[in-house]
Amino acid sequence: MTAPLPSRRFGLVSRGWLRRHAHRVVLVLAGLVTALVLVSLAGAARDDAAIDASTGQATAEVLSTSGSRTVVRFATPDGEVYAPEQGVAYPSGLMVGQPVRVEYATADPDLVRVAGRSWVVGLRAGGLVIGLVWVLAAPLAWWLRHRAAG
Fold first, then answer.
1. CATH fold for the domain made of 21-120+131-149
2. Each residue of 45-63: pLDDT tens digit?
3. Of 34, 62, 146, 147, which residue is most buried, by most CB within 10 angstroms?
4. Which residue, among 39, 36, 49, 38, has the nearest Cα to 113 in the 3D structure?
5. Is the pTM here over 0.70, yes or no?
6. Residue 71: is its pLDDT beyond 80?
């Protein structure tokens, strides 16, 4: 036996409301994931535009790699050494200790990417995520809608 859901007076929705609107919840969540991927790609394109506006080049050493970021250290022509905390953009395939060519924004040397790579690298992964989300969400929303109607 299952316990009934709390009533609306506690701020939760009823089971009937959830059944009638579950398909909308699925579509909204899929839309949010899509928006997050698109905003991420737009941010990467904006960062690349900043680097392209004032490009400096250097050889960097990979200091650390993790699932979320890869930290590099490089020197600018004026002798300043940088190791951006946010890491390098588009780091796939890099290993600790490896030298790598990087491009950075001379106006903001903490904005750095692997030379020859751009936000376009993320298009395939972003497209895959968006496609997978909608391939799963659309039939689920259709099924939930028809289940609620019938």
1. OB fold (Dihydrolipoamide Acetyltransferase, E2P) (2.40.50)
2. 999 999 999 999 999 999 9
3. 62
4. 49
5. yes
6. yes
Take residue 49 and report the two structure tokens written for it: 């535009």
Residue with tokens 């590099």: 72
- What CA–CA distance (Å, rounded) separates 74 from 88? 11
Amino acid symbol at 3:
A
Instruction: Name the residue type at position 13.
Output: V
How many residues belong to the chain?
Answer: 150
List, in sequence order, the alpha helices (H) in 5-104. 15-53
Three-point CA angle 33, 36, 38, nearest 5°: 110
User: Can you tell me which residue has the tokens 């936000």?
Assistant: 119
C-alpha torsion 81→113→88→67, nearest 10: -160
Residue 66 token pair? 């993790």
